[in-house]
Amino acid sequence: MALYPSFFKCSDYFTGASPLALASVSPSTREWCECHKDGVLGCTYDREGRHVLTFPPSSNGGQLSFLRWWLARQGQPPLRIDVGFSGEDAISMDRMCTIKTLMQQLLKDGVYFTLKLSFRDVKSLRGFTDLFPYSEELFLHRCDVPPFGEPGIFPLLRTVELSNCSGAPSLNPLNTDVNVISAKFSSCSSVDSLDALINIQYIREVCIEDYRMVNTDCLRGCSLLKSVSVSRCGGLASLDGLSELSYLAKLCARDSGVRSIGALTHCSMLESVDVSDCKQLSSLEGLSGLPYLRRVDARGSNISSLDGLRGCRQLEYVAASRCEHLVSLSGLSQLENLRTLYASETNITDVDALRTCHMLEFISLIDSRMLTSVDGLGGLLHLKQLGLCGHRLATVDALKHCPALVTVDVSCGRDLISLDGLSGLQHLTCVHASGTGIQNVQSLQSCPMLELVNVNSCGDLTSLDGLSGLRNLSHVNAHGTAVTNLDALRGCPALEYVAVGGCERLISVEGLSGLGNLRHVYASNTSITSVDALSSCPALEYVDVSYCHQLPSVDSLLSIRGIRVKFT
């Protein structure tokens, strides 16, 4: 038995399928070889552990007999045969004959199997009806689909998916196919009606996208539904048909015409709701108090408050970006499990409601132009990432009480003149403060883990002195600032990237001399007069000193092999 693991390792040496001689040594080697990505004779295991044969195998008679022998061996789990048909060559007499022959032989050998049928760009399905009784999964993409025929034609069907199909498919045969658990229809305007879904009592998942539905009444009788998607249904105005689905856990109504979600108040098992880009939706009333709700996405909707989320104690994720009428986050107060919040491009003025959201780790408030205070964030001990780009803040002092902060973006706020609120943050690695009114970076000297500092376009910044001695600092972008030298960077041994282009007052790069890891320097449009200091940087790969009119020569760099220099 100790030899068997060695066989398993051997199978990894084959770029294609494992040899039959190796795979047939024992049941264990068979299973190991079939777990290889190319399997044995087309047989593999999928992610769910099901035994799968991907068709077509070779039509060679000898190969087919090997396959029959292989599949008929004892102790094998039920088999699923995956068969795909595409375009005008979908029906091949030889291929269909091979499929039918194999099916007949497997039935004779007592091998239980089902089919997964995939059709793409097929004009007619009439030649495939003999396969339907064995079909467990049916996928049709850009096909001309006729009525499926009499009820019961798909006795084993569990999954059906139609996308971009034409013709006049009727779903009535699905009424009697009680095994169906998943049905998806996308951009199939020719489907006459979805009413047949109401009688599929065991169905668990329904996805209806880009369809001319106006309500969800066809789902009223699907009492076991756990997942519903009705995205891109512009005419859909009501979700009332979902009101009695007590097992519903996931709803996606993205980019639909939904005006109210009040019907969801009785869906007590809901965990996730996506109503993003629902322009007619003005309120989240209907979600309040749902005990298992963890995720809500209302980006791009017309909501003006988050009050509908009150009492959702398990809520972990809220997205309300691009809601231009949203002026308050008060509905999030007391949500102690909230970890992620997106509220960018809104009109909120403060974040006081977040004081009691003690588990918050990520907050994005980008382009919230009315935001004047972040005092409500003080004391959030788990906050790691904060995006405030595009604000009206004058201070970020409250952030000094957020000890877990790793990344902070306070860019594009001319009223901000100081980074003192970041002083002493021991885990801070990235600071983005471009386009602000800061005058120095002294407060960053007590942030030992800093790796990246972006102070691009801070016109009032005259010195980088606060960066001296930061041993993990690898990237500095001070493009377009008023710095005159880079002496503060001497004590930054990990520095790899420096951008100081457009710093017209910069007259020297001596501060970069001898930095062993420095690879890229961008110093175009500056007043430097020499680049000799860079010749002592052994890892240097690229230097841009274009349009430096005070610089007479770059000969000291051109003599060093491997350095690319841009100089005009």
UniProtKB/TrEMBL annotation:
UniProt keyword Transferase, yes or no: no
SMART domains referenced in this protein's UniProt entry, alphabetically: LRR_CC (SM00367)
Matches recorded under InterPro entries: Leu-rich_rpt_Cys-con_subtyp (IPR006553), LRR_dom_sf (IPR032675), SDS22/Internalin_LRR (IPR050836)
Keywords: Leucine-rich repeat, Repeat
SUPFAM superfamilies reported in the protein's UniProt record: L domain-like
Keyword Manganese: no
Top-level division of the source organism's lineage: Eukaryota
Name of this protein: BspA type Leucine rich repeat region (6 copies)
